[in-house]
Amino acid sequence: xxxxGEPLNADNPDGGLYQLVFGGGPGLVTYLxxxxxxxxxxxxVNWVSVAP
Length: 52
Known about the structure:
Blueprint: E1 6-7, E2 17-22, E3 27-34, E4 39-47
Antiparallel strand pairs: 1-2, 2-3, 3-4
């Protein structure tokens, strides 16, 4: 469910921009949810790798 992400802008929670943490924490995806079109556009995927 795409709407499980957190709104990117807390002042505009229905604006359609969301972020979701994945991969146990090192991943973050930012996406635009266009529910009326049944569409999700992935905008940015960040993956942080920490050297051992």
